[in-house]
Write a structure and sequence with these properties.
alpha/beta, 2 domains, seven-stranded mixed sheet, six-stranded mixed sheet, 24 strands, 21% strand, globular
Length: 499
């Protein structure tokens, strides 16, 4: 039976929910070793939300010890592949069964529309766990070519203890991107979610235990980056850090790996992705892609299409179409309103940073076409309307810095060569797109954009079969797809010599 997802229904879910804020270590909840907690402020209304354990190095030590013990015991690593698969598929089913609850936890934490949390974040989290669960009994070892008196077995083996540090913009989705392949490969995991978005991670761990995942295989430690993330990255008994977040923090993570045990590092970092529109393009399609590509999730997306590189002859026409799409289709409302398409920014500090960057851009000469203003302040929440700045140059701060808000920088060009130069003139290389009806140019241009993903006449289309990650200072290593498992494994050669 289809549920009637009304505002009243979600208000009732909010009133009934009792979030768990303690660590989850070795299959049980634990308060911080210090006894300290911190209160999460709800982005949608500025009210106090859940209390969370304020972790420190001692809590990280406990979680890593739990993960190491589980790994060395082989309680998961040595389990029959079919049994492991069944457990992960049950875990995915439990995520779906508790979808409304998980969606509300996500919305409480990050302020996105609850219907988006349910229809996108919960759905993709479950699909990610299922995807990698399905792969467990389909991973084969290799026999290397040798002479007649030898046999060389090449085995893909798990690394051990994985430290996963995930961001606040898509907590459940990115948690699944790390947890799915790492656990499917046979590792144990210590997850440090962003301090702004820990509630769904704790609930995912509870559901994993309910599905049959052995205690210690998946642990969650909550707290601030300096107090929990840094000790995890420096830990001498962690074999790898899988990190998604800012380029600035990614550089620190690499340094921590070098300072400690030369642990593996995989980084998915920032972006300033170009969406290039030529004058022969379908401008209606380009407008939809540009608006949704930049403004979805209130612009808090690492691969958001925040640079619109548009042929000068159609700039004004395209901006008008983007404004029309934004006004008609991308409703900014209270996150519990089922009609909301975008909601609040993550916290007041971040909202003020976005507004300050907008003001600085205007001082540099960026011209506001529409939007990019604080709205819904009467709610107590942190909302900024989608907005576009036009007639910009690529050296302006709004075109170079990752704003992580609903702000689109439109930069005109005249020639294909100029467009490509602008597109690649960035420290980032996460994603990009080209819109044109000339398929020769589309393929030529897409090959030359330096980015991990490039779309032709669309934006942000993907599935779990395609790898995701960046070039340049957008990081290295890939999430999603079969290739994601590789980074959580190493190759081991076993050579047998015959008489």
């Amino acid at each position: 039976m289809t549920k009637n997802y009304t505002r009243d229904y979600w208000e009732s879910v909010l009133s009934d929910i009792k979030p768990e804020g303690r660590h989850f270590i070795n299959g049980t909840h634990r308060a911080a070793s210090s006894g300290e907690t911190f209160t999460r402020i709800r982005p949608m209304d500025g009210k106090p939300g859940a209390q969370l354990a304020r972790g420190n190095a001692a809590d990280v030590d406990a979680a890593v010890a739990s993960a190491r013990a589980a790994f060395e015991s082989g309680v998961w690593r040595k389990k029959e592949p079919l049994e492991k698969k069944k457990i992960m598929l049950k875990w995915a089913d439990l995520i779906r069964a508790h979808g409304d609850e998980l969606a509300m936890l996500e919305t409480i934490d990050v302020g996105k529309p609850v219907m988006a949390s349910l229809g996108v974040d919960v759905r993709l989290c479950a699909e990610g766990i299922q995807f990698y669960g399905e792969m467990i009994d389909k991973m084969y070892d290799e026999i290397a070519p040798t002479g007649p008196n030898a046999r060389a077995l090449v085995r893909k083996v798990p690394l051990g203890v994985i430290g996963a540090i995930t961001p606040w913009n898509y907590p459940m989705i990115i948690d699944a991107w790390k947890l799915g392949p790492a656990i499917a490969a046979g590792n144990s995991v210590v997850l440090k979610p962003a301090e702004q978005s820990s509630l769904s991670a704790i609930r995912l761990a509870e559901l994993a235990i309910e599905a049959g995942l052995p205690a210690g295989v998946f642990n969650v430690v909550t707290g601030y980056g300096e107090e929990t993330g840094k000790p995890l990255a420096l830990h001498m008994d962690v074999d790898m850090i899988a990190f998604t977040g800012s380029t600035e923090v990614g550089k620190l993570i690499m340094g921590y790996a070098a300072q400690s045990n030369v642990k593996r590092v995989a980084l998915e970092l920032g972006g300033k992705s170009p969406l290039v529109v030529f004058e022969d393009a379908d401008l209606d399609a380009a407008a939809v892609a540009a608006a949704w590509g930049c403004f979805y999730n209130s612009g808090e997306t690492c691969h958001a299409s925040t640079r619109l590189i548009v042929q000068r002859s159609v700039q004004d026409q395209l901006i008008a179409k983007i404004q029309a799409v934004t006004n008609s289709d991308i409703a900014l409302k209270h996150p519990l309103d089922p009609a909301a398409q975008i909601g609040a920014l993550i916290e007041e500090e971040h909202m003020n940073k976005v507004l300050a960057m907008i003001a600085a851009g205007e001082k540099e000469g960026a011209r506001r076409a529409f939007g990019a203003e604080r709205v819904l302040s009467e709610t107590g929440g942190y909302y900024v309307s989608p907005g576009v700045f036009v007639d910009m140059t690529n050296d302006m701060s709004l075109a170079r810095q990752e704003i992580f808000g609903p702000v689109l920088a439109a930069i005109p060009f005249d020639t294909e060569e100029e467009a490509l130069k602008i597109a690649n003139d960035t420290i980032y290389g996460l994603a990009g797109a080209v819109f044109t009806k000339d398929m020769d140019r589309a393929h030529r241009f897409s090959e030359e954009i330096h980015a991990g993903t490039v779309w032709i006449n669309t934006y942000d289309m993907s599935n779990f079969a395609t790898p995701f990650g960046g070039f340049k200072q957008s990081g290295f290593g890939r999430d999603r797809s079969v290739h994601a498992i590789d980074k959580y494994c190493d190759y081991k050669t076993i050579w047998q010599q015959f008489a």
